[in-house]
Amino acid sequence: MNILLINRSDSLGGAAKASFRLMNALRRLGHEARMLVLDKTSGLPCVERAAKPWRAKGVFLAERLQIFLNNGLSRETLFQIDTATHGIDISGHPWVRQADVLMLGWVNQGMLSVDGVRRLTALKKPVIWTMHDMWNCTGVCHHAYDCRRYADRCTACPLTGKKADDISTVAQRRKGELYSGSDIHFVAVSHWLEQCCRQSSLMRDAHITVIGNPLDVAACDYTRQVAGQEKFVVAMGAARLDDPVKGFDTLIAATRHIAANRPDLAQRLEFLLYGALRHPGLLGQLALPYTHLGYVDDLAAVYRRADAVLSLSHYESFGYTLVEGLAHGCIPVTTGEGGQVDIVRHGHNGYVLAERSPQAVADGLQWAATHPLDRRLLHDDALQRFDASVIAGRYIQLIDSLTHQEH
Q: Which domains can be identified in the chain, with CATH numbers?
């Protein structure tokens, strides 16, 4: 089967890495899977640029300028919004024409416009659109946070600063016209994301299947790098560790609570932190021992030094760090405010916090430190549910069902 994956990049961001892993897994299953992108970093011949770099940059800048002029000239929200008014027309690309199935991923920032997606659906090929965040079910945002306008009508978007109809209103209407006039099958990477879509006026009745993101779990080494040490090492990280969404403030409060109220646990814990920090001074507010590694290229080395992996994110469409930690034999401890609950089975392979509070984080870490789970069993759990071969197999089942429907 000839399968074409379409994504903004083949490596930059979680969605890009997920699409790239999926492409490789499909190829290992014997399918002719290829990838069309704007940003190409791999040297693989099965990945191709959809346009010359200068053209891609022009489309990108044109859309950013439009957003900038419509969000009160705010640079703060410039990359929190996507309108899909500009994009590359790939409907005539040879790989698109040759494909049996088109699989869209994260196609914002100039990859595809709404009209560009409509042109692909007009080719009458099966179109699967994997949603890595909330953008498909909102007007312009990728995460709605506490805003619930998308359940009815996006207007006066908090990210545009407008007090009435704005670019979110227009974008929501254009998406609605696309969805109603096209036969697109959507994939949500978690049940939480599916629920968000079901609450949306745009996607209440959409065809949605839940399939998690792939990881090459089989290649992950679950053995502990330093066995038998006294400290219980907890890994926590993100591209930007102090992004407000990632909950670093909750970590600070939790360490202070543990230091003041749980001396036995405080003596055992050590944190292994990775990712960029916009405000490095925040590290000084931690009340327990830590090592900050900064940007890390090899996350496997981090997880092999850790006993547990901690996620305190306010919103996660999926929760890649938890799967990565699980695959390397770390006990996941997490909030339950998103797709994390698809990964962590409370009390079995990890711990889901009852609430967001310093006490709850302390309870979760206490549980992990006193329930030493077998690293190989944790690895095998991830292998059975999230290995790239398993996820690719689920996509093939979906494709087969869509193909049979057409016949």
A: 2-214+387-406 (3.40.50.2000), 217-385 (3.40.50.2000)
